[in-house]
Amino acid sequence: MKKTILLLCILGFLNGFSQTTEKEDKEAILNVMKTQEKAWSNNDIEEFMEGYWKSDSLKFYGKSGLTHGWDKTLANYKKGYPTKEHTGTLNFKINALTKINDAAYYVMGEYHLTRKAGNADGIFMIIFKKIDGEWKIIADTSS
Questions:
Q1: What whole-number distance in Å separates Cα of residue 32 and Cα of residue 28?
Q2: What number of other Cβ atoms are within 10 A of residue 13's Cβ?
Q3: What span, in angstroms and rounded, lies between the C-alpha atoms of 31 and 29?
Q4: Residue 2 or residue 20, greater confidence
Q5: How far apart are the first and last CA of the chain?
Q6: Rounded to an integer, what distance in angstroms lies between the CA atom of residue 53 and that of residue 131?
Q7: What is the pTM of this model?
Q8: Which residues fall within 8 angstroms of residue 103, CB to CB, at 6 or more apart?
Q9: Residue from 136, 143, 79 nearest 108 by CA
Q10: How much of the chain exceeds pLDDT 90, in percent?
């Protein structure tokens, strides 16, 4: 019995040790978004898409309607932003980063594109989920 209690205590300690704080989660999510800003601004849409869940279940909702899947979302980005003049320089303004549960957050904010093809501004709400230890966007609504 004592061995069982000791084992449960050790497992509980190790489980608590591996958990992250809300502050650490938010920093990790913001780092994903900073990486996306840099990739987009370098006209590297594939690297930008690394922040998204590489799954057919990814959802993107924009002016063209609902898109299902990582591959289709990538194809749409490449079609809509074919050159550096179209991608320009991306800046996010985060207005809210809110915990849904231990494995999910939503981010509300604004995007600003400075570019030769004409500047573009809009708003977004994205949902991040921790998948295999990494924060990934599982749903994106942008307009």
A1: 6
A2: 10
A3: 5
A4: 20
A5: 59
A6: 8
A7: 0.85
A8: 129, 130
A9: 143
A10: 85
